[in-house]
Amino acid sequence: MGTVVISVDAALGWNCTDGQPPSVERAAAARSGWRRILELFESYEISATWAVVGHLLLEDCDGVHEHHPLAPARFAREREAWAERPELRHARELVEATVDSPADHELAFLPFSGVEFGHDDVSLDLARAECVGFFDALPDSLPAPRTAAFPGNAVGHRGVLAEWGFEYYRCAVPDASSSFPLANSARRLANATISGPPIVRPAIDEYGLVGVPTSVDFARFDGTAGWLSGRAIADPGIATIERGLDRVADSGGVLHVRLRPADVVDERDAARIREMCAAIDRAREAGVEVATVEAVAERARSEPPSTWSYPTT
Ligand SMILES: [Zn+2]
Q1: Domain covering 3-303 assigned CATH 3.90.930.50 in the classification
Q2: How far is the CA of 213 from the centre of ligand 1 (A)?
Q3: Cis? peptide before 304, omega within 30° of 0
Q4: For the ranges 104-118, 162-176, 294-308, which has the lowest average pLDDT?
Q5: Which of 45, 60, 104, 211 is deepest in the core (most CB within 10 A)?
């Protein structure tokens, strides 16, 4: 029996793509996108793994963060352009709504200010500071995450994750470049539309962490992947998901789909997410189950190590 896993990366204003923050409009729209996704997942009873940038857990801040190694520069936006835009910087109530949802979502980690751990210039101290920031911001009322995600799927500093008690993480499909997530995502999606997305399996690493690779990025980007929004008769994103669901229904494994609230800015985007949910709902009748990263990773860890591998195509 196959499994579909949905990962949502919630970052709002902390969502950097190729080092550039999103437009204020897109970041602000991500709040309504977040709620739309929650509503749809609730109505289709789809539980997902929500990776949340740690800073969003704060109810407020002064934009100083003096103990952070990249302060004050990294937080300059908070004191300047975003000084009057707390909705781009904080989202405690959205995280609480996510955790409280009857869909039974998993809360997962994204670094405190969205630092990309996989970059060569990210030091051990910086990675640790991003973990400290996350857990300092996490209120007692919310569960401590066991799953970590990386901005842009750029995996790095897994030893630091192990220090902090994480057990699972999301990664890219092996051999996929994580250096150019936008171009790579668009190229892979183009290939995936024809042959179907990679079907993945969790694998344990040298730290004892279980990595769950991502099959497909369901993003609709302006520009690079803007064609997705377009004029094709069949939406290639939906077609890709449907192919992947067929494959896991036939032969098992995990279809792991990644998306972001910032990708849901208008009714058309919301309709695409609804279509994806409906496709997943139909696949359930063919025996496909919906699970979180934590659930599939936990299950993988209980299986004999000889069964752990990366047959990803
Ligand atoms: Zn702050």
Answers
A1: no
A2: 31
A3: no
A4: 294-308
A5: 211
pTM recorded for the entire structure: 0.89
* Distance, C-alpha 312 to centroid of its chain: 19
CA of 50 to the centre of ligand 1 (A): 21
CA–centroid distance, residue 178 to ligand 1 (Å): 28
Percent of the chain surpassing pLDDT 70: 83
pLDDT digits 0-9 by tens, 20-29: 666 777 777 8
Residues with CB under 5 A from ligand 1 (ion): 61, 78
Range list of H helices, 148-292? 158-163, 181-195, 236-251, 267-285
Distance 11 CA to ligand 1 centre (A): 13
**Strand positions, DSSP E, 127-209:** 147-148, 168-171, 203-204
Q: How far is CA 77 from CA 84, 89, 113, 152, 275, in A?
A: 10, 10, 12, 21, 36
Separation of 37 CA from ligand 1 center, angstroms? Answer: 26
The whole-angstrom separation of Cα 313 and Cα 306 is: 19
Residue 311 has pLDDT above 50, yes or no: no
Determine the distance separating the centroid of ligand 1 and the alpha carbon of 89, expressed in angstroms.
Answer: 7
Distance between CA 178 and CA 180 in Å, rounded?
6
Centre of ligand 1 from the C-alpha of residue 66, in Å: 10
**How does pLDDT run across 201-251, given as a tens digit for each residue?**
999 999 999 999 999 988 753 333 444 445 545 688 899 999 999 999 999
